[in-house]
Amino acid sequence: MAANREEMLLVQKISQIHDRISKLPSLTPSQQVNELFAELVLTCIPPISIDVSKLCNEAQEMRRNLIKLCGEAECLLESHFSDVLASFDNPLDHLHLFPYYSNYLKLSHLEFTLLSRHAPSPPARAAFVGSGPLPLSSLVLAVRHMPAAELHNYDVDPAANSRARRLVRGDPGAAARLAFHTADVLSVTDELGAYDVVFLAALVGVGREEKVRAVEHLARHMAPGAILVARSAHGARAFLYPVVKAADMKGFEVLTVYHPVDEVINSVVVARKTHGEHEAAGGRQAARSSRGFASAAR
User: Fold this and answer.
1) What's a single GO MF annotation on this record (predicted)?
2) Does the CA dihedral 146-241-273-271 come out positive or negative?
């Protein structure tokens, strides 16, 4: 009963914050916008064991809309700081100005650490799907963790890619290794087979059907043995980002699932693309791994 009451109070508080965010005239960064989203994040960080898939229809609809609002606000925030960074001769020297830069450092370190446990050698070519106007994850991976790799960034928004390209103009070495492509991932086919690892951003596929479609497309076109690193969410943090379930990973063998309990919001799912004849077995393996989504793979 205590757990049910805790969940009820959590959903009630998040619903109240959602109502306040929904009434904002704009999600462009401002003191009011920043304070509301900061309150939302702090509300969702505590490790409350809640299964958002079991919420009532009204709460489910609220959550879907909240994730969309979070995505829109995040894009506007990143666009704003991408413009700020672009005013410097070498924007890469000033990434720390982004208020959540330390979170990206921790998340990228986590993803690379988990990836390294399963990759036989350092990736030579990687793709980041859903890189956005401020591709901090890709930049941090390129500079700190994968200094010899090519990183290809994909985003459906040409304005986002235009902003992102400006950030590497002051560093010839980074500019030579980072490429930016304007494309919907569902239209990218043969190119996906050339990457050792593909990183899938949390907001690629906000709805469940969209997320499944993106993962299935990657399963069809990634090279057998290539690694997929997908961002997910767990517990109350699933009010901020979509959840990637084991059942969604058909065509992949789920290797690791990690649920952070600190200020890093996203869970990380690491999976290997199975060989064609083993895809059915891979789907069964993913289903067997579903319990891993309920506890952190420390």
Assistant:
1) nicotianamine synthase activity
2) positive
